[in-house]
Design brief:
Layout lengths: L2 H8 L9 E4 L20 H6 L8 E7 L9 E6 L10 E2 L1 E4 L2 E7 L6 E6 L4 E3 L6 E3 L2 E6 L2 E3 L18 E8 L9 E6 L10 E2 L1 E4 L2 E9 L3 E7 L5 E2 L6 E4 L1 E6 L2 E4 L19 E8 L2 E7 L7 E9 L6 E5 L3 E4 L7 E10 L11 E4 L22 E4 L1 H4 L30 H6 L1 H7 L3 E4 L3 E3 L10 E7 L10 H10 L3 E7 L2 E3 L67 E5 L5 E3 L38 E3 L5 H17 L3 E5 L6 H20 L1 H5 L2 E4 L33 H15 L29 E2 L2 H5 L4 H11 L10 E2 L19 H11 L5 E5 L35 E6 L2 E6 L1 H5 L3 H15 L1 H5 L1 E3 L3 E2 L3 E8 L4 E9 L3 E4 L4 E5 L5 E4 L3 E4 L7 E6 L20
Parallel strand pairs: 2-10, 12-20, 29-30, 29-42, 30-33, 33-38, 38-39, 39-40, 41-42
Antiparallel strand pairs: 1-8, 1-25, 2-6, 3-4, 3-7, 5-6, 7-8, 7-9, 10-11, 12-16, 13-14, 13-17, 15-16, 17-18, 17-19, 20-21, 22-23, 23-26, 24-25, 24-27, 27-28, 31-32, 34-37, 35-36, 43-44, 45-47, 46-49, 47-48, 48-53, 49-52, 50-51, 50-53
Helix pairs in contact: 7-8, 13-15
Length: 1016
């Protein structure tokens, strides 16, 4: 494609951003900057048929007015490389209801930067970043950019228009969340429209329409897109439509359809006023939250107005009920109000104002920025930070179980590794070839054995036991990015610690202190705040719990039968009292913030709304206050520049809560801070722990990993608690046979098909089915393939053999299959679809056969969570991903171990072959135990990569393209002239990867790396 077409597709924002209206001075242009360009793709049939439009020299900019109350609208702009217009800019004129427009002549410029204003000092300049716009028709609606003509005009030219037959096409967007739509089509026997097609007009909420002139044709082939690279191409098949009126909704085509907007009454009713607005400041940041508004149709977002400071009035659009405002002025009073809005643009009255005063700016390192590249390019190394490498012994802490667990006998405190140690050993991880590091949760934890990080207490604070001077969490993120490595943060939305969640709810009393329990409960100290690190002076303990006990029933106690002895005793034989340990049924935790039941059926509805364990107080995630607390907390880590979230216990939060609140909030925050492309590549992957070997978890779709990769396909109650039950019952009623299917992971013959991500939820998954079957690589391969059509896009699946919880088939031991089996598993993971992931130490078979976790009942040194630092002590410098320049001490010996050599070369090979990173696959025409073909094609970058793979066993590929193939393992060259290639068995753990030489930048690389113990 030409530069024009690429620019046109790449400059759109693929998700809502926070559009700001700023009272600027009367002179001067808004500061440059803005969202990063978004990537885009062309649908399957159109990919081969679309032609360059070439040479566009203008941009027609449309601006949404329905939710504005301005008297006039102006476009203030600068062509790429040119000067800004004089303030206020070019006047915009009405084009169709709710929209104004202006056309900019660009000359040779490939786009423009822009801001909008009312001519009287009120600005929408995209939060000070301005809007980065391309050419052609562009729509800006409440901060969202799309490449379309919302009035149904020139999104492209009708290729065969003018008289004859017509097709009126209605497209349903209600379950897609699209703010705009284009129809890209070709009449039967005709040619395709230019990408992205013709703009469709919104006729009523959830329905877009466009009438196509067919000429003599009686039908058309079509695909739809949102103007920003997200396509609905009918799962790669495109849509076949006829003349007349048709509707397309949720992949169902209805010919001769009735008008879906017939009888629709325009919505003129505004939402209710947001209530309960609160604001809290930390440093120069403010977190604002409020209760959700209601509406006769639906609330679509909120508008936050801030006054105070030197920047004047700022109005921000957000889809969430929490707003984080960063980089404010020090020690400054700010006032906030909130208005709710609906799809028709109706705005509520302003909420009651709240005021807050900022503090001092923290002396922290500069915030980072996510690397923002395709996550499939980055193999993942998973570390338990506290057990990996100790860079600072001063933050080591043993906790209340140090002696009882036996850790003291090994001088091995549970909190031992830290960010300083991880920073010092990034070169070890890079030298192995990994470019992403998944770390355990970083928030301040509180439990008796909390080194793993899954008992969050203060979600807004990094655990001090992980940080050091010059080695904060921000320092780790920045250090990793400087080496081209990503940081994926483990996050928990499902539960807090048994001590509650600071800033949301903390129990005031837990139990009775007597001589048996003196080791657990301490004397109160109102002047001391727990942080896990600081030693309380009276007790001499860093794990002090003195604010959580009482000798008499505390005032306001809600816990039933508080302090009464029970028939139960602790393992030590101590009498247990009522309310001494948390219980959801004792009314100890308020139902506003926490669920009130125990899980009874792990495949039942209660698994999403009840407690897992008495140490894990289960959040009521259907409550807006809880949603606000968690969104506000994790926004802070997004702002630090983390590259993605691994979501713990994702299955225990209803999917509708993910798709309504948490996932959109993540996307919105990343988009606002770093742009749409980085938002799309911010990697969210969920742990949906389905420990069975079948495709659907014992037939329960709501508890199967792939379920969470999809958007809901039905409309549910506006009340989240009701909606969670409605979705559960609806989807279980449909059952496995009624679930959506996808071809996004599969080749179309030998051709790459453009993925259809129109129904993607925003959450990818850990491949639990392959994990369960990795006792044998062949089982993992065949089980993985069997599930891929039910995952939205399995090329993003995170694939591992074992983890900090389980080995294959729910084994409680670290993998013991042997070195050859490990090598075979790795060879499959690094060449099959998905993202290979390795748990720390598996490259040396560290603690193989050891029990992975026994809690405080045995020393960590004897478990699979043992300290790894002794294995990698010394010095190491990486010269690249998979190569080491120099190493000395124990780490040098570790780097010589066979699986280390194996994974280094696998990473070298995978990094050189795009098809092994992002390619779709097929086993059509392929014979062999673990054999397949993969291809990845990207027209925008000119990449086309095709590879034939077999692991351990011989294989034959039939019906493949003729040409020259080169093996990346041996360098062997084969010339295919009859569409067939055969190879013998390379041996256990070995593989063959024959890459088709497509010429130019797509030359087959030949042999990559040097022969090793397995790859040879």
């Amino acid at each position: 494609m030409t530069r024009w077409l690429r620019r046109r597709l790449l400059t759109g924002v693929a998700a809502p951003v926070l559009g700001l209206l700023v009272a600027l001075p009367a002179t001067g242009a808004p500061a440059p900057g803005g969202p990063t360009a978004a990537d885009a793709a062309v649908p399957s049939a159109a990919a081969s048929a679309a032609e360059d439009a070439g040479g566009a020299d203008r941009a027609t900019v449309h601006y949404w007015t329905a939710s504005r109350d301005w008297d006039a609208y102006y476009l203030h702009y600068a062509p790429d490389g040119g000067e800004w217009t004089n303030v206020p800019g070019a006047a915009m004129e009405s084009s169709c209801p709710g929209w104004v427009t202006a056309t900019v002549e660009l000359g040779s410029a490939g786009g423009l930067r822009a801001a909008f204003n009312d001519g009287s000092g009120t600005w929408d300049n995209n939060g000070g970043e301005d809007y980065d716009l391309g050419t052609g028709s562009i729509a800006v609606r409440d901060g969202r950019i799309s490449h379309t003509d919302p009035c149904g005009g020139a999104g492209g030219d009708d290729p065969d228009g003018g008289g004859g037959n017509e097709a009126t096409v209605w497209f349903g967007t209600g379950t897609l969340g699209w703010g705009a739509a284009n129809i890209h089509y070709r009449p039967d026997g005709g040619s395709w429209t230019d990408v992205p097609g013709l703009g469709m007009t919104e006729v009523c909420p959830g329905w877009m329409r466009h009438t196509v002139a067919l000429g003599e044709a009686t039908g058309l082939t079509a695909a739809f897109n949102n103007g920003n690279g997200t396509w609905d191409n009918n799962n790669g098949r495109d849509y076949t439509l006829t003349a007349g009126v048709s509707t397309v909704e949720d992949r169902v085509v209805t010919p001769d359809a009735d008008d879906p907007c017939a009888g629709h009454t325009p919505d003129t009713e505004a939402p209710t006023v947001p209530s309960g607005v609160t604001a809290s400041a930390e440093g120069v940041s403010v977190v604002l939250s409020w209760g959700p508004s209601t509406d006769n149709v639906a609330v679509t977002g909120y508008r936050v107005t801030r006054t105070g400071g030197g920047t004047g009035t700022v109005v921000t659009d957000t889809a969430s009920t929490v707003h984080s405002d960063a980089n404010l002025e020090e020690r400054t009073l700010y006032t906030y109000t909130v208005r709710a809005k609906d799809a028709a643009g109706n705005l509520s009255a302003e909420s009651a104002p709240v005021t807050v005063t900022t503090g001092d700016a923290p002396g922290a390192p500069a915030a980072g920025e996510p690397l923002g590249t395709d996550p499939r390019e980055d193999p993942i190394y998973f570390v338990m930070t506290a057990r990996f490498y100790d860079g600072d012994s001063s933050n080591n802490r043993g906790g209340s179980q140090h002696e009882r667990s036996g850790n003291a006998d090994y001088d091995d405190p549970m909190f031992r590794g830290d960010f300083k140690g991880l920073i010092e050993r990034l070169d070890y991880i890079k030298g192995l070839g990994f470019s992403a590091v998944w770390i355990t949760p970083v928030v301040l934890n509180r439990s008796d054995y909390d080194f793993h990080g899954y008992h969050g207490w203060d979600f807004y604070r990094v655990d001090p036991r992980l940080e050091s001077a010059g080695a904060s969490y921000q320092d780790l993120i920045n250090a990793a990015h400087a080496k081209g490595m990503k940081i994926y943060q483990d996050v928990v939305y499902n539960h807090s610690s048994r001590w509650g969640a600071k800033g949301l709810f903390v129990p005031t009393a837990y139990g009775v202190r007597d001589e048996q329990w003196s080791w657990l409960y301490d004397e109160p100290n109102e002047d001391f705040a727990y942080d896990g690190l600081t030693v309380e002076p009276k007790s001499g303990k860093s794990y002090w719990n003195g604010d959580l006990w009482s000798t008499q029933e505390p005032s306001g106690n809600t816990c039933v039968d508080w302090g009464k002895p029970t028939p139960h005793t602790s393992p030590e034989g101590y009498r247990i009292y009522n309310c001494q340990w948390p219980s959801p049924t004792s009314e100890m935790f308020p139902e506003e913030y926490y669920h009130q039941c125990w899980i009874g059926n792990w495949e039942g509805e209660d698994s999403r709304s009840c407690w897992l364990h008495d140490d894990l107080a289960d959040f009521n995630t259907e409550n807006p206050a809880v949603q606000n607390y968690l969104i506000g907390a994790y926004n802070r880590y997004i702002d630090m520049g983390v590259d993605g979230f691994r979501v713990d216990t994702a299955v225990h939060v209803p999917r509708v809560i993910w798709t309504r609140h948490f996932l959109p909030a993540i996307e919105q925050r990343v988009t606002q801070r770093f742009g749409a492309e980085k938002a799309r590549n911010f990697f969210v992957f969920g742990e949906v722990a389905a420990f069975v070997n079948d495709k659907w978890n014992r037939g329960s779709v709501n508890h199967s990993a792939q379920f969470f990769t999809w958007q809901p396909r039905a409309q549910y109650s506006a009340d989240d608690a009701t909606a969670a039950l409605e979705e559960y019952e609806h989807e279980n009623g449909l059952g496995p046979a009624g679930q959506p299917v996808s071809a996004n992971a599969f080749l179309d013959g030998n051709s790459y098909r453009t993925p259809d991500h129109s129904r993607f939820s925003g959450m990818h998954i850990i491949d639990m089915r392959m994990h369960m079957n990795f006792g044998d690589a062949r089982n993992a391969f065949h089980n993985g393939k069997d599930s891929d059509d039910s995952v939205n896009d399995a090329t993003y699946n995170v694939v591992y053999v074992d983890s900090h919880d389980f080995g294959p088939n729910k084994s409680h031991e670290r993998y013991t299959g042997g070195t050859d089996a490990w090598a075979e598993n790795m060879s499959l993971m690094w060449t099959f679809r998905g993202i290979p992931t390795l748990y720390y130490g598996s490259e040396t078979e560290f603690r193989k056969g050891a029990q992975i976790d026994c809690g405080p009942s045995c020393p960590l040194e004897t478990t699979g969570r043992a300290y790894y630092g002794d294995e990698i002590a010394g010095s190491v410098t990486a010269s690249g991903f998979g190569t080491v320049a120099e190493a000395s001490g124990p780490v040098a010996q570790t780097l010589q171990k066979p699986l280390v050599k194996h994974v280094q070369r696998l990473n070298l090979i995978r990094r050189e072959i795009p098809a092994l990173q992002k390619g779709q696959y097929s086993t059509e025409g392929v014979s062999g135990e673990m054999a397949f073909k993969r291809r990845y094609t990207d027209a925008a970058s000119g990449v086309d990569s095709f590879v034939l793979v077999t692991v351990s066993h011989g294989a034959t590929w039939s019906g493949i393209p003729d040409g020259t193939y080169r093996d990346a393992v041996t360098g062997d060259v084969r010339t295919v002239t009859g569409g067939s290639l055969s190879v013998g068995a390379p041996g256990t753990g070995n593989l063959r990867a024959y890459v088709l030489d497509l010429g130019g930048s797509n030359d087959a690389p030949g042999k990559i790396g040097s022969d090793g113990p397995y790859l040879r």
